[in-house]
């Protein structure tokens, strides 16, 4: 597979079910693909110190984050036999229950997609400069830590 151009992975607000469905539907014509795997990161209604999270407000160093997403993408393609990969991350406010991260990998074989998806998500969480501010129901907030 040829090297991909660097892409902007960011979407303003939540990633909608329609966006996800359209991404999947576009792959029906790619008949060399035998397996897909998808990760959907969803905002949880955590309760911290007695306060309930109602949303996460995402910010990023966009240029640096897009560069890091590209590096992770290229490393994944060199490590696994993939047909394609799509990564999208929210910016701005995403309410509880909405999708904030969508990773979609495809390959001729299922083992590759399972392994590659796990690798990609862990690399994103550990390396990409995206920051989430947890907004509580009382309008207070705190910066989120990745777990």
Keywords:
147 residues, Aldehyde Oxidoreductase, domain 3, 3 helices, 31% helix
General description of the model:
The longest helix is centred in the middle third of the chain and has 18 residues. The protein is built from 3 helices and 8 strands. The protein has one domain: Molybdopterin biosynthesis MoaE subunit (Aldehyde Oxidoreductase, domain 3, Alpha-Beta Complex). Strand 7 and strand 8 form a beta hairpin. The chain is an alpha+beta fold. Strands 1, 2, 3, 4, 5, 6, 7 and 8 form an 8-stranded mixed sheet that branches. The mean pLDDT is 94.
Break the fold down into its secondary structure elements and pairings:
Blueprint: E1 10-12, H1 17-25, E2 35-42, E3 47-48, E4 51-60, H2 62-79, E5 84-95, E6 99-107, H3 110-127, E7 130-136, E8 141-143
Parallel strand pairs: 1-5
Antiparallel strand pairs: 2-6, 3-4, 4-5, 4-7, 5-6, 7-8
Offer a concise description of the structure.
The protein is an alpha+beta fold and 147 residues long. It contains three helices and eight strands; from the N terminus they run βαβββαββαββ. The protein has a single domain (10-138), classed as Molybdopterin biosynthesis MoaE subunit (Aldehyde Oxidoreductase, domain 3).
Describe the sheet with the most strands.
8 strands, mixed
Find the CATH topology: Aldehyde Oxidoreductase, domain 3
- Count of all domains: 1
Order of helices and strands: EHEEEHEEHEE
Structural class: alpha+beta
Number of helical regions:
3
Number of strands: 8
Approximately what portion of the residues adopt beta-strand conformation? 35-45%
Helicity, in percent?
A: 25-40%
Radius of gyration: 16 Å
The stretches of 5 or more residues where confidence is low (pLDDT under 50) are none
CATH superfamily: Molybdopterin biosynthesis MoaE subunit
Silhouette: elongated
CATH architecture: Alpha-Beta Complex
Report the mean per-residue pLDDT as an integer: 94
**What is the rounded distance between the termini?**
33 Å
CATH level 1 name: Alpha Beta
